[in-house]
Every structure is written in C-alpha cells, then in structure tokens.
Amino acid sequence: MIKTLEFNTYGNEKQKQVCRLWIDDTVTDIVYGGSKGSGKSYLGCSLIFGDALTYPETFYFIARKQLIDLRKYTIPTVYEVLRNWGINSNYHNYKGNDNYFELNNGSRVYLLDARYMPTDPLYQRFGSMQMTRGWIEEAGEFNLEAKSNLQASIGRWKNDTYKLAPKLLQTCNPAKNYLYGDYYKKFKEGNLESWKRFVQALPNDNKKLPDGYLLNLERTFSRTQKERLLLGNWEYDDDPELLVDYDSVCDCFTNNHVSEVGRKCISADLAMKGRDRFVAGSWRGSVCRIATDKTFSPAKEIETDLRKLMDKDGVGRSMTIADSDGLGQYLESYINGIKEFHGGATAFDKDLYANLKSECAYKLAEKINNRDLNIICTEKQREIIKEELMVLKSDNGITDTQKKRIISKEVMKQILGHSPDYLDMLIMGMYFFLAPILKKPKFKTIKLN
C-alpha cells in the first residue's frame, strides 16, 4: 500500500515557501529561520524524513554542534513528525549506539556531532561521507569549515537514481558567523547567488505555537534577546562586552584606503606538532598580510620560516614578536634579538589595562572600528579571522572601578571550538603601535681647530 505523507503547515507560509524550494532543482542551499518559535525543527524533520521514507536506500544527516542537543531536542520532534504521519515503530528503528535512524525501506538518517576536535581541525571526518541530502540545525553555532565539509558530502548517494538535486537545509537564529555575510546580507542587498535562498521566519508565522508562548518570551527575554530571537534582528549585537561590530570586522578585508606607510614588523603565533596553527603576519603600517599559515610546524621549521620572512620583507629582529607557550623564548635564543610576547606582562598604560594583552586587544578593536586596519589573506582565512575577531570581548566579570581586560583564551576556545591563532597574531601586532619609539641620540658637534 502506498501511503501519502502530508506536511500540514497550518498556514505557515514561510514553511510552505521552503517546501517549494525543496522540490526546486535549481536551488540547493536554503537557510530558514531568524527567531525562536518559527517552526524550524519541525520543518527540518519533515523534509529529511519525508525524503527518507519516499526514496528507498537513501542517506541523510542532521548535524548540530553537540550530539547531546540532537538527542534531547531534535529526536522528540522526529517522533512527533512520524506520529503525525501515522508512521509507527514498524517503519523505523533508532540505533542509539551508532546514532542513526534506520527505516524499513533501507534509508538512514544520521545524527552528527559537528563539534570542533583538535585531532580534526579541518573537519575532514565528514569528507568521506556519502549522503543524499542534509540538514544543519542551529547553524549559527557552526563555522564555515564545518558547514563546507558537510555540504560536500551531499549529492553522493543515489541522487542520480532518483534524479534528486543535492539539498542542504540550514535552520538558525540570527548569528554573526558566515550566515550573516553569505546569506542574510546578500539577501538584503539583492545579490544572493541563484542556487541559494534565505527565508526569514518569525514567531508570528507559526500558527501552532502554544497559547502564552510569545507572551512568556516577551516577559522573560532581555531587550537584546527580544531583538534577535523575537524580532529576528540580524543587525543587533546582543553582547554588550563585544569590542567590535561585525560590519567593521568585514571591512578589515576591503579597507584599501589604509596606508602602508609606517613601521615594518612581524607578529607570529607559534605552534608545534599540529597543536593549533603557526600564523605569521607581515605588517606595513596598518596593513597586515598573512604571510605564513601552517598546522604542523617543528621548532626548526618555525625558526627557518621566520628567518626567511624577515629577510624577504626587510624586517629587523627587534621588530619581530612571537609567542607560544615559551616557544618564543626558544626562538629568541636562536634568533637573537626578537621579542617574546608575554600577554600577562604589565601594560604600557598600567593604570587603565590589566595586562599587556588586554591593552593590545583594545588597540586592535580601536583600529578595527575606525576602519584603520587592512588584512590581506585568502577567502578561507578571511572567514576564520572574522569568526575569531567576534570573540574580541571584554571580561564581563569586571566592574567600572577595575582595569580593562579581555576574556581569557580558554573562554575564546570554548566559544570558537578552536584556538584563536589569527586573533592572537593580530593582537601581538599591536605591540608595535603601542611601544614608544626610541628617539635617535643627539650628538654634540665638536669643532677641532
């Protein structure tokens, strides 16, 4: 018996719009959301499981930053969707040990943990997957590298058999990650690529919200939460501790007016044996070029690379600064004269800043907000740098009477899911904008008769 699956949107026109896009072969990349209560999870479960039940032996993924959140919040919605379709346990089985749903027609829906792993910084674990279609839930928690590798896995399993276009659905709340620049802003400006769609959804679009849900959010949300999660305001920065705004961060890569006149220097964040990255920036005035970017760097190779960079760019040792858990001190022994950056050292303005790193970070934020910084790098590096600059935050535990400081590197790692290596390099570069310029000594002229 052939069963008809009906997705009743109960008048939610935005969900209907996405359903039409899902069957439009010219569209392969859809972003839906922008607020709480807009029916994101129900939509995603309906599209993914609708396809899985319709096309035998096809494979799909549902990805989120934390697998436990999929288990706690998404699986109940999966069962709700199946129950509303009259699909009982004879048609599906959840394999908890391997985290996937297996349907009686041979199709599978995998639940993927997409958190950052130091052993897999480029998310290469997704590269070997062969999926038909996929869904990223809470895409605001993702970085571009994770999204790109997940997207590369779709369209690889029986798409030709059923003539199915590869489809990626991303559901989200407003976020200042790749979603803002690659989808929302392009949509707003009318230049979104033809294969992409952005569908803004708000709580009022969802006709199935429980009575009192919106009123409760109105009463409990802060002003910033209301702007983002109720009104879908993508432009609103909801973190008062953030030192930069997203548009000024984006402008860092197009500030072609910034002068290259000024000090020539090099700042480097160092790493060995695959831990974090070895990133070096070569500065000309307020223009920084990402000159070195490696994931595996033995100490001797770091030394050699820095020597070559200094020679190539004509930068003296006293204008080169490095830091990485004492490795800078190692280098100072072999490249006599380079500076080792100690973030916890006393600030130049010790009355205002808690330490040197905080002072340099505030200086970096000042240059970014004043459009006085130009970063030259690849497109891939740009996306990571933008993400890292958005954790440039003051410590929210301080009071007005305390010295200015930024959040710790460990907190940054928790937010990003990886080490802020580009940010550290840029922060260290500010040392040379703060350090006093030594005046040339004046010599008294003596005339000899």
Element layout with pairings:
Layout: H1 13-22, E1 29-33, H2 40-54, E2 59-64, H3 67-84, E3 92-95, E4 100-103, E5 108-113, E6 133-136, H4 144-151, H5 159-162, E7 168-172, H6 178-189, E8 196-200, H7 213-220, H8 223-230, H9 246-251, E9 264-269, E10 278-284, E11 287-294, H10 299-313, E12 320-323, H11 327-334, E13 339-340, H12 356-369, E14 374-376, H13 379-389, H14 409-416, H15 421-429, H16 431-434
Helix pairs in contact: 2-3, 12-15
Question: Explain this structure to me?
Answer:
The mean pLDDT is 89. By secondary structure, the chain is an alpha/beta fold. It is elongated and about 80 Å long. The protein is built from 16 helices and 14 strands. The longest helix has 18 residues, at 67-84. The strands form two sheets. It has an eight-stranded mixed β-sheet with strand order 3-4-5-2-6-7-1-8, with helices on both faces. Strands 13-12-9-10-11-14 form a six-stranded mixed β-sheet, sandwiched between helices. The termini are far apart. Helices cover 35% and strands 15% of the residues. It has helices at residues 13-22, 40-54, 67-84, 144-151, 159-162, 178-189, 213-220, 223-230, 246-251, 299-313, 327-334, 356-369, 379-389, 409-416, 421-429, 431-434, and strands at residues 29-33, 59-64, 92-95, 100-103, 108-113, 133-136, 168-172, 196-200, 264-269, 278-284, 287-294, 320-323, 339-340, 374-376. Strand 9 (264-269) and strand 10 (278-284) form a beta hairpin.
